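Re: [help] complex structure
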Amino acid sequence: MSPVVLRLDQRSGVPTYLQLVQQVEQALRLGYLKHGDQLPRVKDLVADLAINPNTVLKAYRELERRGLAAGRPGVGTFVAGTVAPIAAPERSALRRSLDRWLRSAEQAGLDDVGILALVDDALHERGSAAPPNGRRGVA
Amino acid sequence: MTALIGRNAAGKTTLLHLAVGLTAASSGRVEVLGRPPAAVLPEVGFVAQDAPLYTGLRVAEIVRLTGRLNRRWDAAAAYRRLREREIPLDRRVGRLSGGQQAQLALALALAKRPRLLVLDEPLARLDPLARHDFLGMLMSAVAEEGMSVIFSSHVVAEIERVCDDLVVLSAGHVQVAGAVDDLLAEHQLLSGPTGEAVEVADRLQVVARYAAPAQTRLLVRRRGREVAPPRGWQAQPVGLEELVLTYLRAPAAAALPGPHRLGAGASAASR
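Output below.
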């Protein structure tokens, strides 16, 4: 049985196959999935989510292209690569500095929407200079 | 997996009835799996609109009856699917919920092990949960056996996640036909100043135009590789629901992507 549960948000505007890809990537990053774990079987996933089998195959092919999964014919698709996980000490240090930043943002009068807009803007600007998404952080 | 979309009386049921041999064509020719409809009936599964069933029979009785009426018949698969959905075999069909009746009709059609499954408005009368369960049963059968499916619908919401191909029928004619991914990639919504709209629209293939005094939105079909919107205009992707509704609203806008030859046979399984 697969260690993770995949779901869909019909309103997100993100193509279905890409939602599956992103969720697997995120599960890797958060440590829910490890090298060698089996991804949900196509048959089970299409029954649960009521989606086209070709969509699942497309998602799994994309994961293979990114070096994160490998298909074993007749058996299933398995996690192959790893996304660099965040080490626990770094994670809590980052979290503490984020909390400090959030407090100063609140003092400056920003609400949640304003904070998200600012973060989004910063990521966006950085994104145009950084290498394109995909292989980044992949070991 | 092909969806046949159209308003009421667009000709969806007529086309499907021609495909399963329930109606004879007054002109033209129909081919199913490469042969005339009557020659391939054992290989075609069909669920008519509202999934008509003998409501007085018990579930197990209707499974046995349908088995006697069909040469190709996989009773074990029918019982397995009914068990998975917890549909009681000893209950009278008329006492099942609408969703369970639809699943029973689908399980019967699938037990024929069809190469082509034809479903006429299978979702129309189902509530959202029943629609999900019905499509879940259908999609897992497609994943297991790789048959081709064509289903008609005026419910657009589910199409994007279940269909490979889309055909929009309008007043008896094919208005749009193509792979869902291609259709989405080919269309986009442009927004810009109304003062420039006429000039911009002249250079593009416009499916629909929404003009206000200051701003105009154009739903355009891209030609070839041209991607960049005109200077000062914003381009946005279009969702399938919006795309379909736009074409349905403008029956004259037959900016026809296709029709191309749709994938036949076991393409779903082999791809």
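Residues 51 and 105 of chain B are 6 Å apart (CA to CA).
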